[in-house]
Amino acid sequence: MTDILLDVDTGVDDALAVLFAVRHPGLTLRGVSCVAGNTDVDQVVRNTLKVLDAAGAGAVPVARGASRPLLEPHRDAVHVHGRDGMADLGLPASVREPAPEHAIELLRRLILTNPTPVTLISLAPMTNLALLLRAYPEVTTKLARIMVMGGSASVGNASAVAEFNVWHDPEAAAIVFGCDAPVTMYGLDVFYGATASPAQTAELAASTDPGAAMAGRLLHHAARISGDDHRIGQPGGAHLGDAGAVCAVAEPAGLRTRRLPLQVELASGLARGQTIVDRRSLAGDAEYHGSALLAERVEVALEIDGDRYGRLFTEVLLGRVGAA
Ligand code: BDR
Ligand code: CA
Questions:
Q1: 197 three-state secondary structure
Q2: Does some domain include residue 322?
Q3: Is residue 50 situated within a structural domain?
Q4: What is the pTM of this model?
Q5: Tens of pLDDT along 91-142?
Q6: What is the pLDDT of residue 273?
Q7: DSSP secondary structure letters along 240-254
Q8: 260-285 pLDDT, tens per residue?
Q9: Could you list the residue range(s) of the whole structural domain that residue 78 is in?
Q10: CATH number assigned to the domain comprising residue 232
Q11: How far is the CA of 161 from the centre of ligand 1 (A)?
Q12: Would you call 229 helix, strand, or coil by DSSP?
């Protein structure tokens, strides 16, 4: 069993990630923290509670966190995720209540009291994580790993070079990538590769199980929004987005990573929020021309078996994957 915590800005693909995390028999979802990103933080909390309902989750605590980035105002992504941030599915309100404490208090408590080290999966702007790491740096000693969906070693999406979660709060991302815990960057280089086929999406949508049906409807939305985006792993497919990062925690063998120097660009201007990854291979270049600024070493995901994760996601949501 792998104990996990999710930090989310639910979000179509965050919702897929929550559904998968609840349903995968090898993962135990200990709690969820919410942050402003795809939509405002109160809407993120409401969306997350609805997803837990559909998943049939037990009493998973959900806490509200930061309502804006460390320095800048909040900037949403409703053009991708819909007016309610979750594809405007018209779902009924949840009767679940959020936890009374702030997200960083919930994360601290759950990390420090868990009997085994926890994997913290960040699927959103990293404001909550940065606040947690600055307020309670001791948490890193009890973290197995931080899996970050964010960043890119190639092109961006929010800007030509910056990925949305890092672009939204670059200072927070710099704090997370520079922390003492082992960090894996599941960035845009692999993000669009994990896909569900049209047939898998249709099978999920037709299910009588509320969690599987919700996943199918969300994947339909993802396929419609992405259209013929060349980054999507297969024609007509829907990318799993954030859920791919949770698949990679459940089955790490589908991801190839390399430990590389990485730095977040914090200067204002066109490149703000870019994750600069030093992939130079010519021996001597780094030493001769200098690499002193590229100090943080992060496991950067460079290749993904996207079909494997598409299958895994579908089988888990349809209840066809048993406990090991
Ligand atoms: C990331 O940005 C958000 O819109 C998605 O939920 C995902 O976490 C992709 O850049
Ligand atoms: Ca997200």
A1: coil
A2: no
A3: yes
A4: 0.96
A5: 999 999 999 999 999 999 999 999 999 999 999 999 999 999 999 999 999 9
A6: 98
A7: -THHHHHHHHH-GGG
A8: 999 999 999 999 999 999 888 766 67
A9: 2-317
A10: 3.90.245.10
A11: 14
A12: coil
Picking from 50, 62, 88, 14, the residue whose alpha carbon sits closest to that of residue 211 is 50
**Banded pLDDT at 27 (limits 50, 70, 90):** very high
* Position 288 pLDDT exceeds 80: no
* 47 Cβ contact list (under 8 Å, min separation 6): 10, 11, 14, 15, 39, 84, 85, 86
* 170, part of any domain: yes
How many domains does the chain fold into? Answer: 1
Atom 7, ligand 1: which residue's CA is nearest?
Answer: 242
| Active site positions, annotated | 239
pLDDT digits (tens, 9 = 90+) for 62-104: 999 999 999 999 998 888 888 888 999 999 999 999 999 999 9
**Atom of ligand 1 lying closest to residue 124 CA:** 8
Closest residue to atom 10 of ligand 1, CA basis: 164
Residue 13 lies in a domain: yes
φ, ψ (nearest 5 deg) of residue 278 = -85, 100
- Contact predicate 62/49, CB 8 Å: yes
| Residue 133 tokens, joined | 């790491």
Ligand 1: residue whose CA is nearest its atom 2:
164
Return residues with CB closer than 5 A to ligand 2 (ion): 9, 11, 14, 123-124, 242
Q: Ligand 2 center to residue 290 CA distance, Å?
A: 35
